[in-house]
Amino acid sequence: MDDKAIIATKELTKRFGGLTAVDAVDLDIQEGKITAIVGGNGAGKSTFIKMISGVYQPTSGQVFYDGKPLPVGDPLAVRNLGIETIYQDLSLIELLDVPDNIFLGREKYRKMMGFRILDKEFMLQESRRIMDELKIRIPSLSLSTGSLSGGQRQAVSIGRAIYWNAKVIIMDEPTAALGIQEKSKVKELILDLKSQGVTIIVISHEMSDVFEICDNIVVFFQGQCVGNKEKEKTTIDEIAKLIITGQGLN
Ligand SMILES: Nc1ncnc2c1ncn2[C@@H]1O[C@H](COP(=O)(O)OP(=O)(O)OP(=O)(O)O)[C@@H](O)[C@H]1O
Ligand SMILES: [Mg+2]
Q: Which stretches in the chain have pLDDT values below 50?
């Protein structure tokens, strides 16, 4: 179990016109571990995870999940396989309320007089249950999520991932917009998920958080993966040098 790669990318590449955002990345993500992806702005981190989650179609290369090719360019198929992603920019539909977001693309229906109608009550109850379970306080679940705070939206996204029994949760800067209290709540949630066997991939600029909670640290530099280190075998200095220059200490 220790070294099993649950996600593996082979020569994964994304070009936008003349710009190579992600350049032939070979990376193994270990099952049951917390892996941090770090790197400067524009290093290709978000683009990389969007190819895993199906938001972007790779220009070339492949993604394997549990040894099998992952569907490309199909976010719902990827979610249905147990990989949930919480994005920096596009996690929730702001016009929809909390239950509609949690059940987005996987709505629950019931039959009434022969008609198939949305089971709003079920979705509301289930949303309430998961939010309570996570001790997440949201004034009203029926408000559009656009009126929630950044931290509350983050929490709803995490709640959705947990509700659908994600095996892998990918988070793009989950604590960037959060206050101190919400930050430690999210870190607690991440460690909790790990103890339940969930594999976590987290993009972060916060070196102290990375060294506090992660097992492995992957460094991106100008679209390339320039380092994949066990936390116990590296230092903040080494990671900082990799982020800034693309080269390790020697
Ligand atoms: N949809 C897009 N169209 C064109 N170029 C893009 C697109 N998305 C990203 N890029 C470019 O690809 C490169 C990598 O961007 P990406 O968002 O993956 O970086 P990042 O490592 O997530 O940065 P940050 O830490 O600032 O979030 C950047 O140069 C960016 O301008
Ligand atoms: Mg990004």
A: 1
The CATH number of whichever domain residue 228 belongs to comes to 3.40.50.300
Report the C-alpha gap between 243 and 234 in whole angstroms. Answer: 13
CA dihedral 230, 44, 7, 133 (to 10 degrees): 80
Instruction: Check residue 90 and give its pLDDT.
Output: 59
Euclidean distance between CA atoms 29 and 201, whole angstroms: 8
Straight-line distance from the first to the last Cα atom of the chain, in angstroms, rounded to the nearest whole number? 32
Q: Is the CB of 41 under 6 A from ligand 1?
A: yes
- Assess whether the C-beta atom of 204 lies below 6 angstroms from ligand 1: no
| 171 CA to centre of ligand 1 in angstroms | 16
Compute how many other C-beta atoms are within 10 angstroms of the C-beta atom of residue 138. 19
The predicted pLDDT at position 87 comes to: 78
pLDDT for the residue 1: 43
Domain that holds residue 195: 5-92+165-245
Say if 42 falls within a structural domain: yes
Residue 192: per-residue pLDDT: 87
Sign of the alpha-carbon torsion through 171, 172, 178, 183: positive
Neighbours of ion ligand 2 (CB under 5 A): 46
The predicted model scores a pTM of 0.88
The CA 233 to ligand 2 mean position distance, Å, reads: 26
